[in-house]
Amino acid sequence: MHLKYIEIHGFKSFPEKTKLSFEKEITAIVGPNGSGKSNISDAMRWVLGEQSTKSLRSGKMEDVIFGGTVKRNPMGYAEVTICLSNEDGRIEDFDEEITVTRKFYRSGESEYLLNGALVRLKDIRETFLNTGMSRDGYSVIEQGRVAEIVAAKNTDRRLIFEEASGIAKYRYRKTEAERKLQKANENIERLKDIFDELDIRIGPLKAQSEKAREFIKISERKKELEVTLYCDTIDRNRKLLFEQEDRIETAKGDYQNAESSLKEIEQATEENFRKISNIGEKITLKNEDIYRLSEEITQIEKEVATTESDLANTEKQIESLRTDIYDIEGSTSIITLKIDAKLNEIEEKKRELNGIDSDIEKMESELEKLSIEGDERNRQIDETEKELLALYSEDTEIKVSIATIESESRTLENRLNELKTNLPGYEKDYKVAADEMSKIEEFLKKLSIEKSEVLNTIEGHESLLSKRQEKLAEYEKQIDDLKSRISRIENKIHIFNEMEKNMEGFQSSVRTVVKAGRKGILRGIVGPVSSLIKIKHGCENAIEVALGAAMQNVIVKDETSAKEAISMLKSENAGRATFLPIDIIKPSNFDAVNVLELEGVVGIADRLVQCDEGIKDVVSNLLGRTVVAEDLNIASKVAKSMRHRYRVVTLDGQMINSGGSYTGGSSSKSSGIFGRRREADELKKELVKLSEEDVNIVSRYEKLKAETNELQANKTVYESELINVNSKILKAETEGKYYKTIVEQTKNIFSVSRIEMDNVLKEAGEHERILAKRKVELIEVRDRIKLIEENEASKKMADDSFSNEKIILSEKISDLKILRVRVSKDIENLEQMMKLMEEDSQRSIDRSRSAEDTSNNLIKLNEDRKEIIEGRKRDIESLRQNIVELKKEIENAVNERLEIEKNGTELREKQNRVSRDRENIAKEISRLEERKISLQKDFDSAVSKLWEDYELTKQQADLLTVKYESLTKLRQDVSTLRSRIRALGTVNLSSIEEYKEVSERHEFMKNQMDDVRKSMDQLNILIENLTVEMKEMFIDSFRKINDNFKRVFTEMFSGGSARLYLTDENDILESGIEIDAQPPGKIIKNLSSLSGGEQALVAITIFFSILKVNPAPFCILDEIDSSLDEVNVSRFSRYLTRFVNETQIIAITHRRGTMEVADVLYGVTMQEEGISKVLKLSLNEAKLAVHQD
């Protein structure tokens, strides 16, 4: 057997699942201090059941769970699993592999698993007893444990020796046997106390049981006779009930027929009401249509009036435009006359120009002749003449140019004066038109805003009107529904009042007495019980069931009144009645007041009703011994708590009678007098509520209707205002178009005139400059001519006359040419002026055409308006015709409604007649029901008695009946038996069973005591045997360990002597164990005198000696070599190799010598702070790899 692996998860510094596998070789676990290698040995001790947190180097058990680091979160549990090979079958009843798992949660819960199955810690410990693997064994030896072996008391030291000797298992069994023996002693003392108590009770119980048997015998006979009596009563009443039910069914059939007729009448009435409502709705809709059409006519009339007003305004605009056209045509005519005058003037100038041209041509011809004649004479002065001629020509040209410029300047000046005169008028016209257009645009903006506001207001009114009309329709429907419901409820209340007035549901005898009391025939009649009490809401069914037939009992003032009433009933043969005299009836006494504190108890019945102070005792007598509970389960508990001494009824009418019998089933909520009265009260409350609701809704309806009418009127005002605004907008838009045309025209004329004026000014300035220049040139030319003429005067003296003639002719030609130029220029100026006049004329024509177009548009607009007016008038006529037709339809609907209402009157008369018939039938049914109730009460009373007394149904009771001579004899026998039972006095029926039970328990306890004594004897024998066997085994193993200790000590210390001995050989199983060790060359009296290393080596020697006697499957040595020097480490490690075949060695060490003998190394590191990691290295494989290299 050996350890195959250990798996650690969440234990101390191993948060990750870590598995260490082991072979039968020596394994060393190495690592620096603080790396967590000792946590592996702690995990092994923990999984094998170690409970001491001190041994596990922890403050509390929770500390074994990984607590987290800076980088890692803490875990919620710790888990360790070990797997053992059991191939050699050392541990019996297990397979070849044994796994042990221990889990511990941070919540404190713990689990142990053995081969995957949940087990107890006790099971784990028992499994590994005598294997060295138990909690006190030596399979895990740490450094502290080594020191304890030497330093411990001699009595504490023996635990490891007991484990090695194999008696631990026997000691465990002995301890268990002693514990059982102690428990047996305690049990026999307890059994003896019970036996003595039963022995005292058995005698009296025997006498009581015999008396009880006699009671049962008499009761059985009494039961047979009483059951027979009850069955006879039940059979007789059943027959009568069947007959009564037949009569009731017949009456109910008649009542049902009346109900059906009433339903048909109600349906017909509702149909009439529906038709009337529909006709009313139609009339309302028609009236609304008439109102709507009237409003539409009013609206159209307003539109027509507005359109006619617009038509008149437009006519005025057309007239104004015609006046403007006339004025424009007049000014155009004047311009045309001016143009004609200018044309005539131009023609005159052209004729003048033609005459000048003719004169020039003639004079030039004459001049040419003179020139030809004077060629010879003038040849000498040709040069001079030519020069003079050129100068004359230049002079003439300059004069003509000056005359032309002066003429053009005058024309320009005239045009400039004309433009200056006209421009202010154009500018004024433009500003006036622009101002008017701006005012119209501003006015249109205001009208647009006003229109939007009016439209929004109208839309808001329409939305509110729609909602309010919907709400009005909803109110009308609610009012109609409420009227219908109120009518139905009033009819029902009337029926209930009539039933109450006629005392329907009461026995005829009760009605007779009460009526006699009301008339004064009888005195002292207070009234029926049901009429004098008022029941708490919700308790009606319970009180009605509790009272039963007593509801119709008549309360009277005194005994005399009761006798008088009975006498009257008897004399008139009016039936029977029960009377309750106030001066005799006493209140009930209810002593089980503690039940009122129970959950689900409503109260005592008499406290759940209200009545006059004078009849409280009577009510208490009737209801004071009845408890009201919420349901049957609670009622059952209450009845049991009162030992069935009082009645208990539930809110739904189930009843547990005194004695324990149950009465119940289904019932109609309004079947009785209380139910009828309650229903009438509820209907009255509902009627008040509905009436208030009706008044409230009608008030809200009227208020909303008034608000709606006001809203409609406001909407009409705003619609009229909208028509007015639209009319203003149309008028303003027409005027705006007119003024826009005027602005554009005046703007164009003003702009053209300004441009022309600028051009004229510019041209006049240029003319002045040229004129000044030409005048300077003219002076220069004339000065030259004068100089030449003076120089040549002497030469030409002879030819003066000829020359003078020629000169005069030339001057004439020159003057004519100048005149010609001036006339040409005048013609040109006249043509220019005429062109401007033509343009003015054309502009006037354009203005006239624009005004004419606007006038034509307005005329067309008026024609359209006239057509619209005619169409709208036709619409008005059509709407008025529709109104007439609607009024005819309303008149027809009113006639139809009158006809339906007449039919409704006939239906109501029929309904009243059928209702009276139904009420008479209901009275008959009530009378029959009263008789049936009386019979049923007698029947139920017999059935209840049968159940209350014997818990028998009728079917069961029929099997127990006996034959009898007569009912009288039967009743006498029953009375005799009851007397015999009373004579027995108090009987304890449970004493029979109690006696039987006590007798059986008495015998059973006696047998039990005998059995316990036998088991105690067996346990004492077992303890003695175990003690003997333990002594033999311990002495044998102790001797072997001592021999081994002597031999191993010599080997480990290279000499010296040592022995183990018992401190008390007379008490081997409790004796302490002493160690005597003498290292070579030393005399030691006390082990504490040894050095730390020597003490450790002594402890190791004892450990090795034990392993030789009883090898453990594995042994984990946790740094037990840490205090040894190198020499002793070498001895220690060499000696370890001797146990390889018997024990698997796992050494946790950091000593080189121990590592050298290991076949496998596990390295434990802490690369991450607080987290242990494990690395494995096989030294044999490593050595082989080195040799191969």
Structural description of this entry:
This protein has about 1200 residues and is α/β, with parallel strands linked by helices. Among the domains are: about 1-135 and about 1135-1189, P-loop containing nucleotide triphosphate hydrolases (Rossmann fold); about 505-670, Alpha-Beta Plaits, CATH 3.30.70. About 70% of the residues lie in helices and about 10% in strands. It is built from 22 helices and 24 strands.
CATH architecture of the domain at 1-137 and 1137-1189: 3-Layer(aba) Sandwich
Helical segment count: 22
| CATH topology annotation of the domain at 1-137 and 1137-1189 | Rossmann fold
CATH C-level class of the domain at 1-137 and 1137-1189: Alpha Beta
User: Which segments are poorly predicted (pLDDT under 50) over 5 or more consecutive residues?
Assistant: 1185-1189
Rg, rounded, reads: 72 Å
Helix content: 55-70%
Name the CATH superfamily assignment of the domain at 1-137 and 1137-1189.
P-loop containing nucleotide triphosphate hydrolases
